[in-house]
Design goal:
The protein has 477 residues and is an alpha/beta fold. The chain has a single domain, classed as TIM Barrel. The chain is built from 15 helices and 13 strands. The strands form 3 sheets. An 8-stranded parallel β-barrel has the order 1-2-3-4-5-7-10-11, surrounded by 5 helices.
Amino acid sequence: MSEPVTFPSAFLWGAATSAYQIEGAVREDGRTPSIWDTFSHTPGKTAGGENGDIAVDHYHRYRDDVALMAELGLSAYRFSVSWPRVQPTGRGPAVQRGLDFYRRLVDELLAHGIKPALTLYHWDLPQDLEDAGGWPERDTAYRFAEYAQIVGEALGDRVEQWMTLNEPWCSAFLGYGSGVHAPGRTDAAASLKAAHHLNLAHGLGTSALRAAMPARNTIAVSLNSSTIRTVSDDPADVAAKQRIDDLANGIFHGPMLHGAYPETLFEATSSVTDWSYVLDGDLQAINQPLDALGLNYYTPALVSAAEAAPTGPRADGHGASSYSPWPAADDVMFHQTPGDRTEMGWTIDPTGLHELIMRYAREAPGLPLYVTENGAAYDDKPDPEGRVHDPERIAYLHGHLSAVRRAIADGADVRGYYLWSLMDNFEWSYGYGKRFGAVYVDYSTLARTPKSSALWYGKAARSGALPEVTTEENCEN
């Protein structure tokens, strides 16, 4: 028998969700539409025309959901606040009924000994702000800072771990470039402007939180930074990797961590934009000291140079669109990486997570790291007894958590891991067809059933060590 994979005693074992994917109650207590409400109600934008109107009704079932987290043994829960639930037009005073929901949720978590980790923005921009121009408009960054102050003042006394943005790459490039995410716009120049204003929102929001909250609280951001590899060492392929690395990674971690965009990014995108919207003082505003960095990882990318603009679907794993989320990179070819795949078509490769963690241990020495999302979608179904066996997900989690532990052994300061996702939910443009949850949700009744993986992960959380992976995981504690 191999030695057990054990983790530091203070390591956080968490799970993550986002507001629009689970809450439902989209018209209750003063909430107004977000861009995802509008997008999901637009014909042809989501699988089967599905939407988050009800989602998994967490807004009304949060007490049961928190009790389930405690039963599983989780030590932390990462959730997001719905901006239009708190500040319906994205401007002006808060709606206290909206804030009260998050006060109740946080109090419930604390009563069960679960550490709340709050993300301010997980893609649900108030529709009113999109109508005014959305993230390509500079004013949206200032509206975000106002919203951050409101939430910080309301919850900063009881929530210690904060994240400004979740995956700003998706907000900018899937929302405004390829159009597969809300608001569904397809404008390469607008996507780069959106990226800059998301960076500015992060910096201004961080400053607003620091002014509004106790000094003990920590502030981070969650980036879906990519592990990018090339098909060969040919200089053209290496140059293609640099282009994608700048657009996937450097465009965010450059200003956030180092106070500068990569010069190679400016050069590569000069045919799309002159970057004149980067004003004096912006980079200083963005480059605020952070207490931690969140990394979201699912699969690596494999690229090469292309002799001509590629035709057909891009193998970048970011949905089908005739518009690219990679501005000024039409001559870069994405390739399917080898290996087993999840239901998303994403290759299972824990080495990519180890590589990503070690990169950021070098990029930001001394900055604590968290894996704020990692998980897999599978076609989970209950057996005749109502149990849900998902040995593939257990193997996935074991492999990726082992990669985290190797990174810690290699010197990376990784403080915690948040499994994506706590439970099956609305998976954005894929509707309800992709199940990422450790907890199975019957969408007809909304009943929750922990899968084998939830029980396996709970054992890991309680013991601080990874249980053995057997060929037949049972569904009993």
